[in-house]
Amino acid sequence: MPDSVGLSNFLFPAAAMKRVTRSKAAPRFSDDSVNTVNEMTTIFINYLVSSAEHYMQGSNRVTVTANDILEGIEGAGFGEMEPLLRRKLHEAQQRAQEQKNKKQATTAANASRDDGVNDDPSGGNFELEAGESEQEDITAYLVEYDPTPSPSPSPSAAF
């Protein structure tokens, strides 16, 4: 009997993976290579979640935090990305707080009026979205980031 919860149940949408691969690399990727990137990304995310869970349990907590995930990234050998990721996390948290404050101000303003009409077109629903500048920052970082180690001099070159 086949396993009903396999890797294919957790893959990202193919169109999203194509956009990601094309934004970083060559404009043409074969479908097979996009599928491979998708599968490897899913495995890597599962590894990070497992690492984050390890840090959470080491702190005797029951909830994984963003710091646990950042620790998992560092533990996976991607510590050089941590400053950028911490900055982006801080910016996202600030935007979320601003949206929360805006929602509270709108709610307070509506409560002070007696007509009971909510003029907020979003219905009070605010979603955190990455702006173009944040996406450009991440893309620029990824373009600069080269995961291949720099070549070390061969032992025979020293003599």
UniProtKB/TrEMBL annotation:
Domain Transcription factor CBF/NF-Y/archaeal histone, first and last residues per copy: 12-70
UniProt KW keywords: Nucleus
Bias (Pro residues): 148-159
Keyword Nucleus: yes
Extent of Basic and acidic residues compositional bias: 90-101
InterPro entries: CBFA_NFYB_domain, DNA_Pol-Epsilon_Subunit, Histone-fold
Disordered: annotated segments: 89-159
Recorded GO MF terms: chromatin DNA binding; protein heterodimerization activity
GO CC terms, sorted: CHRAC; epsilon DNA polymerase complex
Annotated transmembrane regions: none
Pfam families in UniProt: CBFD_NFYB_HMF
GO BP annotation list: DNA damage response; heterochromatin formation; leading strand elongation
Compartmental location: Nucleus
PANTHER family recorded: DNA POLYMERASE EPSILON SUBUNIT 3
Name of the molecule in the record: DNA polymerase epsilon subunit D
